[in-house]
Amino acid sequence: MDFEKTIISLTFIILMTFFFSNMYNNESLDMSMVDDIKYICNEIGPRPAGSLQEQNVALYLQSRFNDYGVSNEIQEFRYYSMNKTIKKSRNIIGTINGTSKKQIIICADLDTYGNKTKDNYTQGANDDTATLSILITLAEHYKDKKPYYTIINWIWSR
After folding, report:
1. Which of 91, 95, 112, 137 would be 124's cystine partner, CB 3.0–4.6 Å?
2. At 80, is the secondary structure helix, strand, or coil?
3. Structure confidence by residue, pLDDT tens digits, 96-115
4. Is the peptide bond before 128 cis (omega within 30 degrees of 0)?
5. Confidence category of residue 15, pLDDT binned at 50, 70, 90
6. Which of 97, 127, 113 is nearest to 8 (CA)?
């Protein structure tokens, strides 16, 4: 399962990189994507579901979406954790309004993968920080223009 998820994530990243490389010839854009990945991975770090780090990355995404005029909301919810305690987690929905009623929905994980029983989590560059930086870059790209399709960025925690 981990191998399949990694392959799917890498395929998505490669496709989006190809998409953006054909739209831009701007090195600063590439660096801003890398900067977002570094910030989330290094400054915020691993983000298990329901953790303070998960909340911090949600607030970071909301701030970045706000920077580019993307309407967004954080939906908080409660769930039972592995040790039967009730935790609070969140989903983020960001909407880039298009010129038509047609929609594209792009999904990403907010939390990172890890061994829940040993409290050992990864920083999440491939799960799913690279995709989060792509969503931020989409918001930046459409700051001053509308896409044809409405783009809904649905970022959830498991």
Report:
1. 112
2. strand
3. 999 999 999 999 988 887 76
4. yes
5. low
6. 127
pTM: 0.77
Looking at the chain, how many residues does it have? Answer: 158
- How do beta strands 86-96 and 150-156 pair? antiparallel
Write down the domain spans for the chain: 2-156
Superfamily designation of domain 2-156: Zn peptidases (3.40.630.10)
Beta carbons within 8 Å of 28's beta carbon, 6+ residues apart: none
Residues 49, 157: contact at Cβ < 8 Å? yes
Kindly tell me if the per-residue pLDDT of 36 is higher than 70: yes
What does the DSSP 8-state code read for residue 42? I
Residue 100 has which token pair? 């038509």
- By 3-state DSSP, what share of the chain in percent is helix, strand and coil, each rounded to 5? 45, 25, 30
Closest CA to 99 of 142, 153, 155: 142
